[in-house]
Amino acid sequence: MQPGNLLALLLAFGAALLFSRRESRRRTGRRIVAAVALGFLALTTLPVGTWVIRPLEERFPKPALPKHVDGIIVLGGALNPPLAAERDEPSVNEAAERVLATAELGLRYPNARIVFTGGSGSLWGGRYREGEVMRAALDQVGFDTGRVLFENESRNTWENALFSRDLAGPKPGDTWILVTSAWHMPRSVGIFRRVGWEVLPYPVDYRSRPGPKPYLIFELDGNLDKLSWAVREWIGLVAYRLMDRSDALFPAPNPPPAPAGMAAVRLP
Predict the structure, then answer these.
(1) 225-251, pLDDT tens digit by residue?
(2) Residue 53's pLDDT is what?
């Protein structure tokens, strides 16, 4: 379902029709090729990716951090385990802010427990685990990995929440910060709520700029990359809701608590 893959497949299909002996098929082929060309032109000149990913990233604003935190949970997705194994050194990807946030929050809250959750979601490279690379990355920057619990078996965000809950054993009333990419935060929060774990969202790894920006650009690769991640997340939100793995179709921040001494007003 990646937009780039769909456009490439449509282009190949339309080009194949151009060689048909039937004029009606050749006409259809020309229309498909023209439509794909317009699609690529739109992705090159218009910030389509930003339009689609921004609602995901703006859903959970970065919070004011509390004075006390019981734990920090960091979702995998920022590391490249196969490349790390082949090059024999830690390798991060474009979501490296998750690694940086682990060190930043860990230093800010020296008594907080830290859980990193990330195994492998690959069908063919399952022997490489993100937790092992994360340990090496934190060691490389001098962070005390003895404070970190590494969950290495999860294959997706649902298992991130389940396995981390069982590993950490959070108690009612505990304050746990959840670190993941801003565009991934709505689905992640919905999943953690579904397994009964209320977390404080701490989004990182933004892909879109805030506020209005010029509408004309010339950047196919960056725009297509944003659109691909956004489409994946929107599909994931729908799929996880249908599978009852999220508490809402598009999870939102909890409403602020009512001031002390004020009773809630129920509208008719």
Answers:
(1) 999 999 999 999 999 999 999 999 999
(2) 96
User: What is the secondary structure of the chain as a DSSP string?
Assistant: --HHHHHHHHHHHHHHHTT-SSHHHHHHHHHHHHHHHHHHHHHHHS-HHHHHHHHHHTSSPPPPPPS--SEEEEES-SB-HHHHHHHTS--B-TTTHHHHHHHHHHHH-TTSEEEEE-----SS-TTS-HHHHHHHHHHHTT--GGGEEEE----SHHHHHHHHHHHH-PPTT--EEEEEEGGGHHHHHHHHHHTT---EEEEE---S-SS---S----HHHHHHHHHHHHHHHHHHHHHHHTT-SSSSS--PPPPPPPTT-PPPPP-
Assigned token pair, 91: 């390798």
Q: In this structure, what token pair is assigned to residue 32?
A: 């498909």
What integer is the mean pLDDT of 142-165?
94
